Amino acid sequence: MTVVYNQIANRSLERIGALSDGLFAIAMTLIVLEIQVPQLPHGSTDEALATALVGLGPRFVTYLLSFLTLGIFWNGQQTQLSYIDRANRDLAWLELVFLAIIALFPFTTSLLAENIDVRLALGLYWLNIFVSGLILYAIWTYAERARLLRDRTGPEVGAAIRRRIGLAQLLYFVGLVIGIVVGTYPAIAWIVLVQLNFAIAPRIWRLHKI
Amino acid sequence: MTVVYNQIANRSLERIGALSDGLFAIAMTLIVLEIQVPQLPHGSTDEALATALVGLGPRFVTYLLSFLTLGIFWNGQQTQLSYIDRANRDLAWLELVFLAIIALFPFTTSLLAENIDVRLALGLYWLNIFVSGLILYAIWTYAERARLLRDRTGPEVGAAIRRRIGLAQLLYFVGLVIGIVVGTYPAIAWIVLVQLNFAIAPRIWRLHKI
Amino acid sequence: MTVVYNQIANRSLERIGALSDGLFAIAMTLIVLEIQVPQLPHGSTDEALATALVGLGPRFVTYLLSFLTLGIFWNGQQTQLSYIDRANRDLAWLELVFLAIIALFPFTTSLLAENIDVRLALGLYWLNIFVSGLILYAIWTYAERARLLRDRTGPEVGAAIRRRIGLAQLLYFVGLVIGIVVGTYPAIAWIVLVQLNFAIAPRIWRLHKI
Amino acid sequence: MTVVYNQIANRSLERIGALSDGLFAIAMTLIVLEIQVPQLPHGSTDEALATALVGLGPRFVTYLLSFLTLGIFWNGQQTQLSYIDRANRDLAWLELVFLAIIALFPFTTSLLAENIDVRLALGLYWLNIFVSGLILYAIWTYAERARLLRDRTGPEVGAAIRRRIGLAQLLYFVGLVIGIVVGTYPAIAWIVLVQLNFAIAPRIWRLHKI
Predict the structure, then answer these.
(1) Which of A119, B125, C87, D129 is deepest in the core (most CB within 10 A)?
(2) C-alpha distance from C103 to closest chain B C-alpha (Å)
(3) Could you tell me the pTM of the whole model?
């Protein structure tokens, strides 16, 4: 009997998770590594160092932004994987495409930090978020169709995941529009607020019910 | 039945542990990567290289300091996780905030190494330690309240964890005061000694009984 | 009774997998890190940034190329490991040699990106792919001979793995020939197409039946 | 009842393994990252690139050297861990000290590559190997005394581990002596040969029986 290679490839969900955890951990650390440490002449004052650090302000804002972004997508992927029972090669490649897009965040983060008043930099950062969400959506849809989900995963789980991705992408798109119409700073502030809402999920807001 | 997304998110303790191990491993390695290797002209003598290495002294002191710091917090987080039975999305986000603060250590380490006589650099390093401890404290408190602990985890475990964090933070604060009143070098020496005490936990001292 | 050290060493398949996942995750992230972020003067226009990004074109092409390459070899190694029941020290060292070759991809990727019109750069990139495939082949052959495979792993699995490696290497070799005879750009395009074929495995092509 | 914090800390062998795998994977990748990619002017010839790559020769030699070194210590640590049944806080800290020394290899590797004819650079590289071996020895001795080993781990396992560490360190010390008396190149060649012997363990040599 001849076996087709693609039938035997990539059936380990565990190693997909391990690869993802590694890649997310590195991306989270690299966005700090890109912050250049001020090296003042020997005997400098506290004030001189404070001034130099204030100049790094955009870097710290984009660090906060990107840590939240990476945390949200790590959570999103992990939530999906917890409902998936087994992998196949197509799922493995969809996850790899997801990771390839996630691995770009240190680049788009630095691009935004170094050019924080240029709309194109914000647009590319938004694009990175948008494509990440798109692929997460595609992964879930594929997993449903290919019957890779755990037993007893009712359709309401998929509905919740789709609602969440749709809502998040809508709010990020509002951020992009703010960036184009108003400016990059208010757009970044909006996106950070949206992300904090997803991270903190305050009980008093209606949004966390979605 | 409608499912709220936040109810289904982030229930895997294992992947939180894996992400943390990856991030700690990277942070521990990056604090070495930031030590710039001296490149002497071809045919240099041993003496020339020795002189260049001595100039890197502050870098090695801060490497020792930060490896101890990261080891202590890795141990602290791991000890907590070993008593936690299951995760939920709030715990996952608290752990992510903890990791976001830990990921800053390569930056604050370099900042201190490059500006080792500037008190603000020491103050920011202390702040990094302080906030890390604060979040560990918050994680434990949250896990207790949200009843995420393993069965048979008596209140004496939480008491021991709180005592340890409180004592450590008190001793680090003494280090900060030494830094402000006396100078950065004695402050760093004090903090390293405190950390060595926690790492080695000598049997002859009373401190390890706490 | 005297025990020979080599008999007791390296029997954990799990840790080989974990080391591999870590190394692949880092390699995948580093190939982005090497893309230098354009730093334009304050107040630059979208057009200036777009021009700078277009100049990074070769970098993004080689990023796509190398992410596909790393994904293919990660999948290949993982597929093999899923059929291997236990490790021994020889297998561990073969896997380490495989990882040592994989760890070179960030270097050969940058080399190709920085010298994209130089045939030697393409040749070395091809060599990196070729040796990686060769060692994967050697690992499987060794695992078969040393009877490390899981029970019920019939010879048709090995046949499928060998066919796949052989076919892939043949197609990559065609890419090398194109590079020598025609030029580096068409060669890179060919290799990317070959890799996309393996990744996407389109149902309408006969190739995915092999 | 009061619980002493040190009694409840660090009991997970798994997370020690995971942290180690992450740190080794990063160190293995960073020793490549430090190899600077030649950037020739547009339209350079194959010959120009070949010349530039030959100039990187010491870098590739030290890459080979350090990958072997890291592989040997990863194997050594893993072999030990496979006989250890449970951890405690002292073991965790010994492993952290081991990792702190391992994390220095990218630095000592670069130091040697950039100053390959300076004996002090070789001496520090040897010191890194020596201390790594010393701590592995200490870890095993501690684990035996603290009765952390798995049941049925007879004394012959410990004897084999000690013989292997002792022999390896003796051979590395010969390398150091060659470096001082003859020169750095023959010393590096000797150490690489010693390591290849441990990695390949050729059946025809008597050494692999030790």
Answers:
(1) B125
(2) 16
(3) 0.92
